[in-house]
Amino acid sequence: MSTFPCLDFDLKTPACIEWVSNDATQYLVDPDPQRGRVMFESRFSNETSSASFQLHCPVRVKGIESQSHIICLIHTSSITSVDYNENPELPEIVRKKLNCKAIRLHLEFCQPLDLIAPAAATEPVQPRKRLSGQAFDSLRSLAKCSALDIYIPAREVSQTKLTAVREAICRGDLKPLNADIPALLASLYGGSGGKVVNLSAPRDRPSVPSNDEPPSYADLEPPPPPDDDSSPHSKDKPLLPDTTASAGSSKTKRRRLDDSSTSSDVDTCRDIWDTLYHMREEMQGLAKRVEHLEKENTDLREELDELRASCDKATDAVESDETALLEVHEELDELKMQVDFLAQGGLSSDAEDHIVETVTNSVLTHILDGGYNTKITFEKS
Question: Which ranges are annotated Basic and acidic residues under compositional bias (predicted)?
Fold first, then answer.
């Protein structure tokens, strides 16, 4: 079994996707909600020499209250070519979204991407909001392409790993990490499961021939107003208005408008609550950080006070040692002077008095011991 020591290619990073459809360059950059990010995920197993590559696009789908995402599964065995550019010329939309130095991965494959949605999404899978509808349009086009470019931050992966991935795929050494598709689908979305879907056009789109591309969500226009002038009755034979039918029709139309307005209001409220929830999480995180910084500041202040006290003690000890050292220097200087004086044969007055006193006492003691009655006077010269 072959192994790839350099192919540690496990990452999940923000990405921007570029491909060509009908001779026009398309991008998948802005998901729904816009604060979300399109993600590129790759995983690698050295034991089985297998890998997987996925794109994640946050969207809001019908049947799921919270935001979710559509997974674009790139089949490892279908990749025919991989290349990369470390210094690509970034399109303006990519540069603004990533806001950093980026690497462009170029993939070509012989099998279209599979689009996977949460198993709880209603059939057919439809977007809940207009922005999700635009993301659906991009995903629908992306699923039909045979080549794409993936822009990712350059800091996420090294040239050595990219070269190892390219060589392994070109040699055909990599196997699908999740060859068992049913098991893979069951493990997605936190264990709630996913399903392969074919994103259909909205229900309110006009019918078009099967060989024509349906219009995008951004190109949809509201239906024309009803024609009030058309009437099955003759103008020459006026009829009394049917108040019951008019009231029922009015109520029915009003109910539909109310339902649409209620749905829009619910989506707006949900967006507001999502925003408030994330703001609350950020505020809680900031509060914890401030508390941590305050505690760290208190600890630093205590440590600074201890250092100041130690410095004061050290300063007092140094001053005391300097005083003692000065006294020792003075005593040494005085002792040196006395030594020099004695070395030159001189005697100090104290030494002379001590010698005279010693000799006098010695002579007197000798005379007294010898019995002599003699008076001897010594004069100091």
Answer: 230-239
